[in-house]
Amino acid sequence: MKALSQRRRHPLAAFALLLMALLVTGGIYAAASTANQAQAQTTTFTADDVEEGSKLFSANCASCHGLGATGSNAAPSLIGVGAASVDFQVGTGRMPMQMDGPQAQAKPVQFTDEQIGQLAAYVASLGAGPSIPSEEILDPSEGDASNGGELFRVNCAMCHNAAAAGGALTQGKFAPSIDDTSERHIYEAMVTGPQNMPVFNDANISPEDKQDIIAFLDTIKEQGSPGGADLGSLGPVSEGLFIWVAGLGVVIAFTVWLTSRSS
Amino acid sequence: MSSSTATQSYVPKTRVGKVTDYVDSRVGGSGIIKEFGRKIFPDHWTFMFGEVALYTFIILLLTGTFLTFFYDPSMAETHYEGSYLPLRGVEMSVAYASSLDISFDIRGGLFMRQIHHWAALLFAASVAVHMLRVFFTGAFRRPREFNWVVGCTLVILSLAAGFTGYSLPDDLLSGNGLRIIDGVMKALPVVGTYLSFFLFGGEFPGTMIIGRLYVLHILLIPAVILLMIGVHLFMVVLHKHAQFPGPGRTNTNVVGYPVGPVYAAKAGGFFFIVFGVLAAIAAAFTINPIWNYGPYDPSPVSAGTQPDWYIGWVDGALRLMPGTIGNFDFEFMIPFPWGVNALSLNVLVPALVPATIVFALMFTWPWIEAWVTKDKREHHLLNRPRNAPTRTAVGVAGVVFYCVLWAAASSDLIATHFLVSLNDVTYWLRFLVFFGPVIAFMVTRRIALALQRKDREIALHGRETGRIVRLPHGEFIEVHEPVDDYKRYKLVSFDSPEVMVPTADANGKVSLLDKVHGRASRFFFEDRVAPVTPKELAASHGDHHDEIAGAKDRESIASH
């Protein structure tokens, strides 16, 4: 304790304290924010599911989307959006929407998988729409990663970045990173076009090509970064920032050391 | 020559001595070492950025040579058959395929590619910081004006070297960069399309450009850089290194260590430090992961497409330029005898104007400043930036201008990472690119003057120690501690030019040039904090009642 009190006026004491505070708050935040985890689910609906989904919908969604999902001034009609849309929007936490903004943001999922299935069953019962994809079409081992890569670069990379790290759109909208998105949600996003994303229907990109894209994303996620830490895969901006701050910083530290003895 | 007769009369006794003497009597190395080895260099950490630039350039030559062994600049089409799975079978150019082979199938290739690229970024960064050091310390003044110009040329050459190298992998990212160059060229009226066809050997992208850039990148540009480095270093030796003012340091001497052995060892060691730092970075952090971007194809553009940092500011200018304002579209149709040609100012202005302003000011600044100060003396003592407030303010304004454009090149990442609207980022940066430099100029000049005032205060009255002492009669004073002579020397020994008022000639007329000069002089030196004169310093010694009183008090406190 004596050593600590002697060093409390050390020039670096403030930095040490700051670092400690940052580590503590960061640690608590990291622990708190990983409390919710997604789980797998089934895709077969029964009449009971529709019935339960209807109740859930009235209680949680109808205030914006209207009773019977017919829409209101605040939110669009959901008739014909299909089970895939509900599974994506509710399954990634985007719905119920946390706040008004340029687009609905992902957040911890609010419903159990069973409840999401019931909601999806109810919305699917209102009108025909894209259904939740089958397990077979989502299997990345069946896809061709290099074909998927080409399709991804032509169709997706202009918003989502060539390494799927995400990118900016206008007026605060953005294309999110797809690093941690499950295969099912990637597929559903393509067929339903959530937020500002265009719809890539089966005439546009066939289900097999979608599977290839999923295989590509799966491959680049699995392989990691072959050349070392990827600095966020953000391209030359993060590289430039790194060389100016870390590279030049270390070099300056050495120049100070080398010239410290003479003057 | 007298030295050669001296060496001939010398008879070496040992084997090594004989060999050395044999060589020396033919190449005269001892004379050079005697002369150059005794060259004195002053020591300051800010003097080492030029060295960093030189060492990174050597590292670039070494690693670049390795890369040329395996790189093939051909734009012929091929199907990738290497070991990177997500690109297997994809149609691409041989240049991109060979870059991928360097990355995945050649032992040590990825490391070499990464160290080469990181070294290129550090090269440009150290050149930039070196230029800033020279500018802010006034090291460009006579006799070093030409060396400043050589340095400016090296900046442009390093940008050219970087950009040509950035394009070589022929991936999607670099192809997008080339497309912008092509677009800028085509925006030039009349000659634009001809120039573009000339450079690309036909319509963009053609099949020639990579091979041509390769020749520029590995032959012409490094050769010119090497030549310029030679000229640059020759002039450094000729002029001797400038030094910061200090006790015993004058305009006619250099205080420091000789090259041999101290600097030879330090500089040699520093080379390996820089090499080691770059190697560590290259081993641990990926740069330009070309496999992510895929082969170049004119249709896709990935989000997060930016040039390397040193070209970023030009990209930023292009991003900030509005395509149209209302109905005004910045495009003019110029009728020529052969037809109508378009002049696209919304491309040409951002692509060329900021760079022209920055480089024109950079190249001519030594003469602009010399004209304002009318100072024809040689300067081997550097300025502290605060002691040249207007110059420092101009420099900071330039840095802010550059940085706003630089930030604009990453406007999309600013938007996503700080959760703001991309449009708002663009509007703010448009405002800042015009007003930022003005605000920076005013604030910097005020800060510099304030620091001068603080220096003056410290030189005259000493440092405030924060010790409050109560005198026997109840008065509280703060004890001021006088600074030592070395520190005081730094605080008082600088030139502070005053405003030059234009004077009338024999006919009683003031020429227009003199009037302009007078105005410029007033702009530069009107706000001025006079350095402490010896007289003021002597007077302030009699004025140290509070210190003396404090000392007396301390004695009395100690005795109780």
From TrEMBL, chain A:
Name the chain's protein.
Cytochrome bc1 complex cytochrome c subunit
**Source organism of the structure:** Arthrobacter burdickii
Give its localization. Answer: Cell membrane
Q: Which domain of life is it from?
A: Bacteria
Q: What is its main location?
A: membrane
Q: How does it assemble?
A: The cytochrome bc1 complex is composed of a cytochrome b (QcrB), the Rieske iron-sulfur protein (QcrA) and a diheme cytochrome c (QcrC) subunit.
Top-level EC class, please?
Answer: translocase
Q: Which residues does UniProt assign to the signal peptide? A: 1-30
Where is each Cytochrome c domain found?
48-127, 143-221
The record, for PROSITE patterns, names: CYTC
Enzyme Commission no: 7.1.1.8
Which reaction equations make up its catalytic activity?
a quinol + 2 Fe(III)-[cytochrome c](out) = a quinone + 2 Fe(II)-[cytochrome c](out) + 2 H(+)(out)
The protein's matches in Gene3D superfamilies, at most eight in alphabetical order, are given as: Cytochrome c-like domain
Kindly list the residue ranges recorded as spanning the membrane: 241-259
| Keyword tags | Cell membrane, Electron transport, Heme, Iron, Membrane, Metal-binding, Repeat, Respiratory chain, Signal, Translocase, Transmembrane, Transmembrane helix, Transport
Membrane protein topology class: Multi-pass membrane protein
Q: Which InterPro entries does the record associate with it? A: bc1_cytC-su, Cyt_c-like_dom, Cyt_c-like_dom_sf, Cytochrome_c_Oxidase_Subunit
